[in-house]
Amino acid sequence: MPHSQIIIFICVELNTVTKVAVACPALPTSRNATLLVCNSYKDVLDVLQTAKEKLGEIISAFELIDYNTLQLVEKHGVDGNDSCSRLLRDMLQLDHTSTQLQSELAPWPLFLLVETQGSNAEHDASKMDSFLTRLYNSDTINNGFLAQDSKQLMEMWNIRELCNPSTARAGCVYKFDVSIPIDEYMDVAREVETELNQSDLVVCTWGHVADGNAHINIVTPGVYEKDPALAKHIETTVFGSVLKRKGSISAEHGLGQSKNECLNQIKEESVLDMMRQVKRLFDPHGIMNPGKYLPNDCHCRL
Asked: What single-letter DSSP state applies at residue 182?
């Protein structure tokens, strides 16, 4: 979403800063955004390929939001913002009172936010027009909304940014930040939904589909207390589905304390031994951020 003039890249390995680089890119002078409605994940992949061909170097974001998530944003997130409300209803094909699709669309459409950033407004607008024309002519998308100005562009981003707080307002959320092979991106959510097979759970997925990063959030609507037994069952189900597809249980938010005991599921024992040696070398007394990355015993089995 919004960018900073200063981007700081820090590589941290076992609590030791190994490299710092500061880049100061110029702010883009041209931004465009579109919200697209796809009937299937196959269509999402087709849109991604078309974006690579038609938008190329000016693509700055390719975000996916599933139907369950967008319903919760519509219900809990817009807070009286009429413009966002209208856009959400148009995307979801809803009237003011219904919570069901009003058309013959596939039951669970998927939504994409595609943004471009560049330095030549005329050039970038032409590329976006070519991109959308290709999509409409190929029936890859069911509907689309192009931001006409910066206000509408920010409203589109606001919908994306409301995914997290909207699920939190709906109930207790069991959160997972995982990396999945792009071709199987939505398969994990569907499998988890089938495996859990509980009508009182809502599986929501959104994220940066172009690099396989998925935020899978499982919500218990109206119930705000965490259930430890349910949490363990959900974790085992999600991690098992991700690892079966050779994905990673750690994506942009890292391992942290909640997943560090499962390191042996994503690292070879020889790698873990080397990590322990590095940790002992720089922190022989175990006083530097203890237990935050390497647990005392990596024994978790899924």
From this structure: G
Q: What domains does the chain contain, in order, with CATH numbers?
A: 30-161 (3.30.70.2190), 164-244 (3.30.70.2740)
192-201 pLDDT, tens digit each: 999 998 889 9
Give 191-219 as a DSSP string.
HHHHHH--TT-EEEEEEEGGGTEEEEEEE
pLDDT, tens digit (0-9, with 9 covering 90-100), for 269-279: 888 888 888 88
d(CA 86, CA 92): 10
Is the whole-model pTM more than 0.85? no
Cα 106 from Cα 43, distance rounded (Å): 12
Q: Which structure tokens are listed for 294?
A: 């390497």
The token duo for 132 is 């959308």
Residue 51, φ and ψ in degrees, nearest 5: -60, -40
